[in-house]
Design brief:
There is one protein chain. This protein is an alpha+beta fold and 154 residues long. It is 22% helix and 42% strand. Strand 5 and strand 6 form a beta hairpin. The longest helix has 25 residues.
């Protein structure tokens, strides 16, 4: 019985260590060409919403000169993007509206390259509903937030 518990505990701890290691790798920035980095991912619900995306500690220390949103699944109407900087200033970014799967906004230029981003507030309406989702017709929109590092810091 003691040998079984020892083996079980060892396996459990090793599995936990592997999961924590892989989770840490997932939070590593994903760099795309030309200095774009994925800083957050959100899943939109089937209703009008406003979501606040708190930028994690690693990304909040970085400086960026532009943002773009990419829809990887579903359809979403982006109404407004509000960027809150570390110095307390805010910037509202206007978008072109509806994003469908595998589409992105144009690069949205930020006012300053000198400040870091604390949070991003998204106002949107996900198109579709729960009944269509259950039937497999539409899925909840998944939105990626990408930020571009200024040329001099790439």
């Amino acid at each position: 019985m003691v040998a079984f518990l020892r083996t079980f505990l060892r396996t459990f701890l090793l599995g936990t260590l592997v999961i924590l290691t892989l989770n840490g790798c997932n939070s590593t920035p994903k760099v795309e060409k030309d200095g774009w980095v994925k800083i957050a991912t959100k899943t939109a619900n089937f209703k009008s919403e406003e979501d606040v995306v708190d930028i994690n500690n690693y990304f909040s220390k970085q400086k960026y000169d532009a943002l773009k949103l990419t829809c990887t699944q579903g359809t979403v109407n982006i109404k407004d993007i509000n960027v809150s900087y570390a110095d307390g200033k805010n910037q509202s970014l206007q978008t072109l509206g509806v994003l469908t799967a595998d589409s992105s906004t144009r690069p949205l230029v930020l006012n300053t390259k000198e400040q870091t981003i604390n949070k991003i507030t998204l106002s949107y309406k996900s198109l579709g509903n729960l009944a269509l989702n259950a039937a497999g017709v539409t899925k909840k929109a998944k939105i990626e937030i990408w930020a571009r590092k200024p040329k001099e810091t790439n």
